[in-house]
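Entry 14. Structure prediction run on the chain below.
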Amino acid sequence: QVQLVESGGGFVQTGGSLRLSCAASGRTFSRYGLGWFRQAAGKEREFVAGISWNGGSEYYADSVKGRFTISRDKRENTGYLQMNSLKPEDTAVYYCAVEFLGRSWTEAHPRDFTYWGQGTQVTVGS
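Output returned:
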């Protein structure tokens, strides 16, 4: 079992930045791919960014490329999502997930991940 706890969400004005954290405990998560998803009100959960188990590869949804950066610190068992140039359409609950079992990161889907955090709200004011 892996327990994930997200933090770092909050309210920010358009153009601002936030850094989300995903703290892992339990079985070591250093062997797992890590993903970030988000779910806006009334919408399906969507893939935002992913990073391979060794940190060697990163993947981003087109909507966040160039603005968001995913990273991980294996020593701290923590994943991060640095979000810059935030827009109102980035408003959502953000979730981290680990143990990617899908075929392709470019087609990552919530069903491809085993463990999930509880989510953290990000609200971007216009």
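The chain is about 0% helix and 50% strand.
Filed with the rest of this week's runs.
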